[in-house]
Amino acid sequence: MSLTFMGMPKFSRTADQAENDTVLKGNIAHATRMMRSKRARAFAEVPDAAQLRDASAAIKDHTIRHLGSYLRQLEKSVIDRGGHVHWAENGEQAAALITELVRAKGAREVIKSKTMISEEIGLNEALTEAGITPVETDLGAFINQLREDHPSHIIAPSIHLNRSQVRDTFVSEMAKHGRPAPEDLTDHPEELTEAARIHLREKFLRATVAITGGNFAVAETGTLLTFEGEGNIRMCNTLPDTLISVIGIEKLVPTWQDLEVYLQMLPLSAVGERQATYTSMWSGVHDGDGPTEFHLVLLDNGRTNALADPVGRQALRCIRCSACLNVCPVFEHAGGGQVYGAVYSGPIGAILTPQLGGMSNEVERSLPYASSLCGACSEVCPVKIDFPEVLLHLRAKAARGPGHTMERLAMSASREMFAHHRVLGAGQRAAGVFGNKAAALPLPGPAKNWKGSRNLPELPGTSFRRWMAEHEKELRKQAAAKQAEAKQAEAKEDTQ
């Protein structure tokens, strides 16, 4: 299953289309600036922030190196606590497996917490096709579901909308899915939140099956852990009879003690708080407490391919905090996550999506170029991913793929030119004479796209080589004139 959205063009085209949407870009800019300033203030209050980042990266690297061992340990721990473990090689398998689990319980409606991995596997579409209604219970995901919209951010999926747009969505769409919005609903956040809660409460109370993700899974104890700010995940974890959780195989930590680091790092990086509003943990099933049936789905979907890449595998450290999105000038200027055409957006999407998908389509091959390589993402990453290194690594891979024949030929020609100074000089002289005239002409074939995405500067009328030769000639002339003047002065003194 593709990690990109059906029919979406590559990043550069969608970014161009969003260029003049001032409302969209204003919404994104306001939200990301607020989140990054809040994060910066929170980190400034943590004296050992640098050591926490080092520990976060080290734990993740250790886990990834021994992933097979810890996955087997996790499976045993979950089963020992009364749970069931399922393995899915790709998104189609995971979506089909979950659909069958829901169908086996006779449920026609399921409640869901926001989870990027369900977007990754196309779970809502699979459930709907099977006649099962998925209900998103996170406020942002719920708004997007009403609008049939894609997420624009990893932790805040509807930040591309302002309050009046949310209010209009509730008024026009909420009645189609259950309780309608109040007739006198305004765009005040408290009223919007209350309207969503009233609408969703009856769905929580009648649900028999819930689907969640997980921020971390502890191999040692079989415990899953989620962070949230609304309480909807806790409702999913406790009210229904059956709980299904789906996570990527990289979400592991080895021991309960390792959680100490991430209990601090994820809330700090994601929302600029020392502690999440709700931190929920569950391990298997317990009589008289919560669901009576628990299923854990472990998803690969390209992760082992990324694991095999010594450079690219550091993307698997990601804890989905979205700090990289909030500082990325490209993400902000382009208009948020929807323009990426993929489930995962921003800097992490630019390095994760192509690896999970294998650069199988135009969108995936374009994402490594959705960056200015400024490195702001690496500076804030809590697990110290070197984004520029991975981006350049993936760009090199993309250039070896289909559609880059002209680029490879151009690079080969450039290599030959730079290897022979006389050829280079001739090319520079020609550019000085014909360059500006040629730049004004439309270029054929793939070169048209190359030129169309750049503002070419005015070329000088002469090359640096020629300017330097003339400059040195003038300096020699001035030096000779001064030398002649000095000799005349000496001769004049001798005659006196």
Automatic annotation (TrEMBL):
Gene3D superfamilies, per the entry: Alpha-helical ferredoxin, NagB/RpiA/CoA transferase-like
LUD domain residues: 72-298
Residue intervals of the Lactate utilization protein B C-terminal domain: 402-472
Start-end of Basic and acidic residues biased regions: 468-477, 484-496
Record's keyword annotation contains Zinc-finger: no
PROSITE patterns linked: 4FE4S_FER_1
Matching InterPro entries: 4Fe4S_Fe-S-bd, 4Fe4S_Fe_S_CS, FTHF_cligase-like_sf, Helical_ferredxn, LUD_dom, LutB/LldF, LutB_C, NagB/RpiA_transferase-like
Superkingdom in the source lineage: Bacteria
Region called Disordered, residue ranges: 468-496
Record's keyword annotation contains Cell wall biogenesis/degradation: no
Key words of the record: 4Fe-4S, Electron transport, Iron, Iron-sulfur, Metal-binding, Repeat, Transport
Xref: SUPFAM superfamilies: 4Fe-4S ferredoxins (SSF54862), NagB/RpiA/CoA transferase-like (SSF100950)
Domain 4Fe-4S ferredoxin-type: 315-385
Name the record gives this protein: Lactate utilization protein B
Organism in which the protein naturally occurs: Streptomyces gamaensis
